[in-house]
Amino acid sequence: MADSRSTTEVLRLVHAGAPPEFEAFTRALAHIDGVQNTGSTYEADAFDAMCSTPFGQQIDAVVAQLPFTMRKSFVGVAFDHKKALFVTSPISRDAEKIGEVDRRFREAGIPLLIAQSQRYTPAAQTIKSAVDSGKLGVPGLLRIHRWDNTSTGDDIWQLQPDLDLARWLFGAMPLSIYTTGQQTDDGAYHQVHLGFPNGGMALIDHAVGFQGSSDYYSLSLIGSTGAAYADDHHNQQLLFGDEEGPRSLRTGQGDVALTLLLREFVKCIADQVPTDNAQERDAVSLTAAALLSFENRRPAQLREGQYDLA
Amino acid sequence: MTSPDSNIFRCAVLSVVKHAYVSNGVAAHPRFELVVVADDADQPDWVHERNQKYADEKGIPYVRNVEKAIRDYNVQVAVVSSEAERHADLSVRAAQAGLHVVQDKPMSTRVSECDRIMQAVDHNGVKFLLWNRNGLPAVQQARELLDSGSIGTSKAIHVDFYFSKDVGPLKGSRKTDDPPLNWLDFQIAAHVDGSDGGVGKEPMGELQIEGIYPLAYMHLLTGLNVKRVFARTTAHFHQLYVDNNIDDLATVTLEMEGGLLGTLAIGRIGAASHPDIGEIKIHVLGTQGALVVSEARPEVAIHYRGQLEKEFRHRRIAVDNDFYLMNNFADAIDNDQPTVLDATASRNIAAIVAAALESSLTGQPVDVARI
Fold first, then answer.
1. Pick from A181, A199, A310: which is nearest to B234 by CB?
2. Which of A86, A139, B255, B302 is 20 to 30 A from B114, comparing alpha carbons?
3. ipTM score for this prediction
């Protein structure tokens, strides 16, 4: 159990996920002191069996980067075996259930980190730092375009990481949400319009599956005294010599986001700091409100901590 | 319809109180000649002074009687660049006199006045062009790419339209005992640095003043009408906008014909927020691809020691918008075609803006057809 260890000891982590995620995990973990990569697993049942072995009993924590449908059972196994758990967001689409899971882990003294990876990208970290420093003044307008051809999901829950990002950058839950979109054979598309208590606003659009629109991301944040622009358009490189003509290429950003997340997770375990996943509950509430608005073609408004149709 | 002995259109400038980019743009085309500046005699002194100054610069007379100037100078085109609330009156009178009209934005401060222009233009069989930026090279390239089917059928279109200019003191800078900033006084004083885009008695937010430009892009690129809008507005940057209860920052969700969706982000975001005039971008998502366009490009970067802080580091090149617009206007007259932004399209844009402002007040989506 992680919280019984000395901080000078090495933490043993196991990964749960597919090979590409495991490779990224391995690369990211190499940046962190005092940790050992003990291998990988995938199914919750296999992890359950592993934990019952002498090898498994020595594992301090598990990093689960699994499809959404597999996360719930993995959370249960980790809790049963008192393993610190890093799990990719979301683990549920019910904010109350997330709160219950969070409470159980906290009461049992088991670190739980539900990872909102979008917050940890180099761009988001840089912009949040500028916001927190006061250089940009009061956040006024956040604009995000995310056109994703690699995601498998096509529903509105794909917006959750960016809705979380908006809530994080404004430091408050939006008062109003208006969602429009369409799901067709060509792809799924949603756009969300947020209004914040300080009068600020956000526009987030997300496309999945449209041919030729893969992997484009743009974020701009306009504040009262400054602005930040993180834009794939600006960051594209050009490749010539291709038979099909010039191509634009985005320069990779390595495993910075995962490294930062893992570092935070390891610090929670080592320092025995109780984890709090309130941001995950907020993000799920926000996404559920976006869905409510979309299904009813009306804005949802925050009243007494709950989103209802306006 | 040109002057009897040539294919030159003789133009009357009906008030030129704002920066003179419209009348100068008209005059830059070889088929259009400014021959007189005119305005109503009962206008205040500052209006006459500006009109007179412009007439003197151009070496043409200034006549304090619009109808007399139209009668006496054999003009075929009116160039209207007055205070915004007088746009419609001057354009309607010009159309009723049989003149084609080139008008500065916004079309009017009221949709009912836009309707009057539309009816006058239609009834008198003249052409109307609302000044716009649709001829910029990047916008034209976007249109060509979309028209050629490069990205299939458009599913969503987004425009960012930020002007990184300051407009007087920052929000929150007014002391308790200071009076609110007067809109017209401020606009008159701002003429010196060209930040008087909203000159007139009636305060106008950025959506009303500048919304025409990005919405005209959408009109050009999609050809579709907007059916419903949802909007948020705020005065986020400038005390002038706070004092006059208007927006300097706004976002609009647009639901268009055929299920096309869109958004507009617009603001006068302050000089510190961008190294140049501001981020102006167009994103179009299609069934077979997508388009991301920087409206400012092509551009050239110029940096040097001692460069003034306010000097833009990036300079647009190959800009031919004035010629594009006036060539389009001449073609429309010659061949009885619609202009690139005619009275109907301009009126529809004014209705979108009005619907967005209503939505921002009510917190509800608004059907544009109801406006």
1. A199
2. B255
3. 0.95
* Burial (0-12, 13-18, 19+ Cβ within 10 Å), A184: middle
Query: Is B118 in the same domain as B165?
Result: no
User: Which residues on adjacent β-strands are paired with residue A40?
Assistant: A15
B148 in a structural domain: yes
Closest CA to B24 of B99, B81, B100, B93: B81
Look at chain B and count its residues.
371
* A310–B364 C-beta distance less than 8 A: yes
Token readout for B353 is 């803006």
Q: How many folded domains does chain B comprise?
A: 2
Q: Residue A113 to residues A8, A27, A64, A285, B150: CA-CA distances in angstroms? A: 22, 20, 10, 18, 44
Specify whether the CB–CB gap between B31 and B330 falls below 8 A: yes
Q: Would you state the structure tokens that stand for residue B246, as one six-digit string? A: 């208007």
Report the residue from B232, B235, B279 with minimal CB separation from A201.
Answer: B232
The last residue of one of the domains, among B126, B150, B176, is B126
Instruction: List, in order of start, the domains of chain A with CATH numbers.
Output: 2-118+257-274 (3.40.50.720), 122-251+286-309 (3.30.360.10)
Find the closest chain B residue to A232 by CA distance: B292
The predicted-structure confidence for A56-74, as pLDDT tens digits, reads as follows 999 999 999 999 999 999 9
CA distance B72 to B12: 11
DSSP string of A71-99, one letter each residue? HHHHHHHHHHTT-EEEEESPS-S-HHHHH
Domain with B82, as residue range(s), is 9-126
CATH number of the domain where residue B289 is located? 3.30.360.10
- Say whether both B147 and B267 belong to one domain: yes
| A1/B contact by beta carbon, under 8 A | no
Q: Taking the CA of residue B207 as centre, how many other CA atoms within 13 Å lie in the half-sphere pointing to its CB?
A: 27
Domain shared by B102 and B164, yes or no:
no
Over chain A (310 residues), the average pLDDT of each successive run of 10 is 54 96 96 95 94 95 95 96 96 95 96 94 97 98 91 82 97 98 89 97 94 83 97 89 82 92 95 90 97 97 95
* Cα distance between residue A40 and residue A57, in whole Å: 15
Q: Which of B248, B269, B284, B359 to mutate to test the interface with A (most CBs of A within 10 A)?
A: B269
Of B106, B126, B146, the one marking the end of a domain is B126
Whether residue B151 and residue A212 make contact (CB cut-off 8 A), yes or no, is yes
Cα–Cα distance list, A160 to A126, A171, A285, B192 (Å): 20, 16, 10, 48
DSSP output for B13-38? EEEE-S-THHHHHHHTSTTEEEEEEE
Indicate whether B312 belongs to any domain: yes
Output helix, strand, coil percentages for chain B, rounded to the nearest 5.
40, 25, 40
Determine contact, residues B339/B127, Cβ cutoff 8 Å: yes
